[in-house]
Design goal:
By secondary structure, the chain is α/β, with parallel strands linked by helices. Helices cover about 40% and strands about 15% of the residues. The protein has eleven helices and eight strands. It has helices at about 20-35, 55-65, 90-95, 105-110, 115-130, 140-145, 150-160, 190-205, 210-215, 225-230, 250-255, and strands at about 5-10, 45-50, 70-75, 100-105, 130-135, 170-175, 215-220, 240. An eight-stranded parallel barrel has the order 1-2-3-4-5-6-7-8, surrounded by five helices. Helix 1 runs parallel beside helix 2 (about 55-65) and helix 1 crosses helix 11 (about 250-255). It starts with 6 loop residues before the first strand and ends in an 8-residue tail after the last helix. The protein binds phosphoenolpyruvate. The site of phosphoenolpyruvate has 14 residues, from strand 8.
Length: about 260
């Protein structure tokens, strides 16, 4: 990991209503406080991605109590406004002071047939509204067997970054589909191989400054027991955590990975 501030992001998926969200965010903040977690030089940035209906409650709590936490949406519309029933504009997420938004999570790609073109349009929408897109890429077990570890995630990334210009701030989450929710995480060496390939692709498409600044996360069955290994890798700058982010004590332990690095 270079001098990029690590990001530990919790994707709650379709779990926790707005009342449960308040309890979980409060407990997460208290646990990090008790542990004297500090953001920045010796700590990670910690972000949660609750369902849309929780976001206003999470915003009010974080702003009201000045909690050192970030949050974002799990998806956004490629469109800014109009006749798109059920969709959520990036403008609305920005109005709720979201910093981040997930784009192209494998569950969106799988269950909602989101193509690379749709993901590119959503990343563009996020950037238009001043949100930092967290673009998720990753291969299935079948892809891994047929094409090797990096081909599919790199192709998914290229399809998006080749549409971008300038020096956009984005985060890339490498999430092997076979590792999500399976309890079988990739090894840190596997994550590093793909992380390095993703960064090389960003370098080619968008240049050194963006490649050096972009945080690449690993996601797939991350827990407090395996996080440190991933963060020791030079091209892994954090984690996107699903199941384990629903338990604030476990998620706080993941966010405090630096306590385990070198241990
Ligand atoms: C995810 O949902 O993005 C994820 C990585 O899930 P889990 O940590 O449960 O594997």
């Amino acid at each position: 990991m270079a001098d990029r501030i690590p990001l530990i992001a919790g994707n709650w998926k379709m779990n926790l209503d707005h009342l449960q969200a308040i309890a979980v965010v409060q407990k997460l903040a208290w646990t990090l406080d008790d542990a004297r977690h500090s953001y920045g030089a010796d700590g990670a940035e910690v972000a949660v991605f609750p369902p849309f209906t929780d976001l206003r409650s999470v915003q009010t709590l974080i702003a009201g109590d000045r909690l050192d936490l970030r949050y974002g949406g799990q998806d956004l519309s490629a469109h800014d406004s109009g006749a798109y029933t059920g969709e959520i504009s990036g403008a609305f997420l920005k109005a709720l002071e979201c910093r981040y938004v997930l784009v192209g999570h494998s569950e969106r790609r799988q269950y909602h047939a989101e193509s690379d073109e749709v993901c590119a349009a959503k990343v563009a929408a996020a950037l238009r509204h001043g949100l930092v897109p967290v673009l998720c890429v990753g291969e299935t077990a079948e892809d891994l067997e047929t094409h090797g570890p990096s081909a599919v995630p790199v192709a998914q990334l290229r399809a998006v970054v080749e549409t971008l210009t300038g020096e956009p701030e984005l985060v890339v989450a490498y999430e092997p589909v076979w590792a999500i929710g399976s309890g079988q995480a990739a090894t840190s060496e596997q994550a590093q191989v793909v992380g390095a390939a993703l960064r090389a692709a960003i370098r080619e498409e968008l240049g050194d400054a963006v490649a050096d600044a972009t945080r690449i996360l690993y996601g797939g069955s991350v827990k407090s027991g395996n996080i440190a290994g991933f963060l020791r890798e030079p091209d892994i700058d954090g984690a996107l955590v699903g199941g384990a982010s629903l338990d604030p004590v476990e998620f706080a332990a993941i966010a405090r990975f630096q306590k385990h690095v070198g241990a």
